[in-house]
Design a protein that fits this description.
184 residues; mainly alpha; 3 helices; elongated
């Protein structure tokens, strides 16, 4: 016999042996499955009976636990409603008002609209004060000192002009050095 024929014969024999092994495994599995059917049925009935027994034992105890728990939960709810809930309600209401797009309350808008009027009033007071200062300064200097083209008769320092003192030489120096100005 040739080498190739022997090799093919060996391969065929190996395949046949594999097929026989698979068949034997299938037969074993079939026997086990047939035996497992009644065992599973017995186990299922035992589990069903155990569940029924557990349900009959736990039903009254669950009802007792619910009866014990219900008043405590109700008391807790009432305590929360009376103590914590108002604070939570206030916080949520304030947050909702901050987030809301609707027109703000009149007391809030009054404060927001007041500051432009305050600034405008302050500006008017400053302008009126500056105008009054200019008018008073012109009156104090005299009618002829502010006219253009006329020479000033005496040059005075700001301190001397404030005190109304002018020296003959026009230097504006004070004779009494110890005297303080009325502004200080």
């Amino acid at each position: 016999m040739s080498v190739l024929s022997r090799k093919r014969a060996a391969e065929a024999e190996a395949e046949a042996a594999e097929a026989r092994g698979r068949m034997q495994q299938l037969v074993r599995l079939t026997v086990l499955a047939r035996a497992a059917g009644p065992m599973a049925k017995t186990a299922g009935m035992a589990a069903r009976d155990g569940a029924r027994n557990a349900a009959t034992w736990t039903a009254p105890r669950i009802n007792q636990a619910r009866a014990w728990t219900a008043p405590r939960i109700e008391r807790s709810g009432l305590a929360i409603r009376d103590t914590i809930a108002p604070k939570v309600c206030e916080t949520l209401t304030a947050a909702a008002q901050r987030v809301d797009v609707t027109a703000p309350r009149p007391d809030v808008t009054a404060a927001r609209r007041r500051w432009p009027w305050v600034v405008a009033g302050t500006g008017l007071l400053v302008a009126a004060g500056a105008a009054a200062a200019v008018v008073l300064r012109r009156q104090k200097d005299g009618p002829g000192s502010g006219a253009p083209g006329e020479p000033a008769e005496a040059v005075t320092s700001p301190l001397a002009a404030q005190n109304g003192q002018v020296d003959a030489d026009g230097s504006g120096a004070q004779e009494d050095v110890t005297r303080q100005s009325p502004a200080t």
